Amino acid sequence: MNKSWVPADRTGSAEPSAGDRRQLIVPLADPLSDGHARRSFLGIAIAIILLFWIAQITFLTTMLLFQSPGNALPFLVPRAVVSTAGIAISFGMLAAQSAARSASLLRRSLLAILLAFVGAALHAVANEAAFATFVGSHFTWAEFVPTILGNLWTYMSISVIVLALMYGRDLRERENRIATLRAVAQAAQLRALRFQLNPHFLFNALNSIASLIFRNRNAEAEAMTECLSDFLRSTMRMDPEGEIALGEEIALQSLYLEIEKARFPDRLIVELDVPESLRGAAVPNLISQPLVENAVKYAVARSPTPVTLRIAARDEAGSLVLSVSDDGGDAPPAKDGSTHIGLSNVAERLRLYFGDSASLTAGPLPSGGYEAVIRLPLRHPE
Fold first, then answer.
1. What does the pLDDT look like over 114-146, one tens digit per residue?
2. I want to staple 134 with a disulfide (CB 3.0 to 4.6 A). Which of 78, 117, 157, 292 is the partner?
3. Contact by Cβ (8 Å): 45, 167
4. Are the beta carbons of 296 and 260 closer than 8 angstroms?
């Protein structure tokens, strides 16, 4: 999931083009699980495992020197072989627990216990094989079972230490993610509010209202003023770190589009396809706003013919799939790549909320137009 893609334009070129809205495919990996944090954790875990087995062979060899000096040297080689096997088994346990990192703590604890039994059994096999090869001892079940039980505490300790280290790392990463999420969410809301209060945006809205009043279309002017007021009031009082129901998100976008309809009464056609069963699903607030803005800016505003803007949602195997698309109309190619900034903003918010459980895919449609698709876990507000 750490692989990245270069945004491509409609011609398929790998270089960004100024002649079109860009295609963005973002696998939402968590960088906290890689890089320095991962290297630090692995370094500590590997160091503990190596020190543990070095200490064990040193302790056993020292005891043998005092108890039976004549056997210390002959037993050194099989002890070294068994300790090497122990290191390999411990690294295998580390890899298995790392692979199960996304599981619940209960399942990871049960896995740690199971790995301890498996490790003790494998260690017993390695122990019997090594001493049979280098010392000539004979394998007996009477000795094999006690060997497993004797090593169980050793591997249980290693397994628990690895689990504790990994869980501690997960907690630290979660704290870092929450802190970053707060900062980015606040910045995202400020950017959204900045756009909403942008003089150009307000000028267009107020100019449309003034135009309606001048043409004695007072009822429409009043309705547009109410939509603008409701939209600004709703977005300003939002918790920047919070989530809202999908139905509320769609209602906000409908208010925004009602304002834009006054500017483009004959060009903007809005279609909503959001099942009632999904309107209670939880989504980050204003997550679809940049996608709707892009559709208006790059399709509706540039096309001399009507453009259909469609917002749809569906349940896909337990995931909420939210899409914003337009048919493009007769809009000419965009002269800049500013949509890439908006899409990257959405992708970053999704990553911080959901890690690699969410994704954003955006690009031109084969039939013309453009579509951005968000996939995220299907949940309900807490």
1. 998 998 888 888 888 887 787 766 666 666 777
2. 78
3. no
4. yes
Tens-place pLDDT, residues 278-331: 999 999 888 898 899 889 888 998 899 999 999 999 999 889 999 999 998 877
197-377: CATH homologous superfamily?
A: Histidine kinase-like ATPase, C-terminal domain (3.30.565.10)
15 CB-near residues (< 8 Å, 6+ apart):
6
Q: For residues 163 and 159, what is the distance between their CA atoms, to the nearest angstrom?
A: 6
Q: Please give the single-letter amino acid code of residue 16.
A: P
- Extract the tokens encoding 272: 């909503």
Alpha helices in 300-358 (DSSP H): 339-354
Q: Give the contacts of 206 (CB within 8 A, at least 6 positions apart).
A: none
**Alpha carbons 293 and 116: distance in angstroms, whole number:** 55
Give 235-287 pLDDT, tens digit per residue: 777 665 678 899 999 998 998 888 888 888 889 999 999 999 999 999 988 88
The strands making up 307-316's β-sheet, listed across from edge to edge, are 24-27, 359-364, 370-377, 319-326, 307-316, 268-273
> Is residue 113 within 8 Å of 119, Cβ to Cβ?
no
Domains of the chain by residue range:
35-175, 197-377
Residue 57: how many other CB atoms lie within 10 Å: 16
